[in-house]
Amino acid sequence: MGAATMEEITMYYHIDCGTSNQVLELIRQKGFEPKLIDYVQNPIGAEKLQDLLDLLGLTPRELLKTSIPLYKELDLEDPDLSQEYIFKQIVDHPILMNRPIVITSKGAKLCRPAELVLDLLP
């Protein structure tokens, strides 16, 4: 088994997300099986969310999934909302976190569009 096949890939995804499934397929086509974390079914909590934001270099607002009804229901488009408030909403409602997020030895990215994952693969 070559070193490349031992690459550890972690993917934060949601099973009902088309882009998540496209990214998963691209990873598998390259011969890898990522560690899958369905953060909607198994919420990651505040500490791990902060770690992800730091790794990605994003603010909570930049990580929001804006195309879901809950985004509008919670009035999250309001530009006056604090990053802390948005962070808490993502912790409380994990579905608000945009996906998929892929982490490899080459870095971490929010892979939208799906092809961005190719930059992270060996």
Rough outline: elongated
- List the secondary-structure elements in sequence, H or E: EHEHHHEE
How far apart are the termini? Answer: 15 Å
Strand content: 5-15%
Number of strands: 4
Counting H and I runs of at least 4 residues, what is the number of helices?
Answer: 4
Helix content: 25-40%
Structural class: alpha+beta
Summarize model confidence as the mean pLDDT.
94
Spatial sequence of strands, sheet with the most strands: 2-1-3-4
Uncertain runs are: 1-5
Largest sheet: 4 strands, mixed
Report on this model:
- The two termini are 15 Å apart.
- The relative contact order is 0.22.
- This protein has helices spanning 18-29, 45-56, 69-73, 83-92; strands at 10-13, 35-38, 101-104, 107-110.
- It is of the alpha+beta class and 122 residues long.
Task: List key phrases describing it.
122 residues, elongated, alpha+beta
Describe the structure concisely for a colleague.
The protein has 122 residues and is of the alpha+beta class. The protein has 4 helices and 4 strands.
How are the SSEs ordered, and which strands pair?
Blueprint lengths: L9 E4 L4 H12 L5 E4 L6 H12 L12 H5 L9 H10 L8 E4 L2 E4 L12
Parallel strand pairs: 1-2
Antiparallel strand pairs: 1-3, 3-4
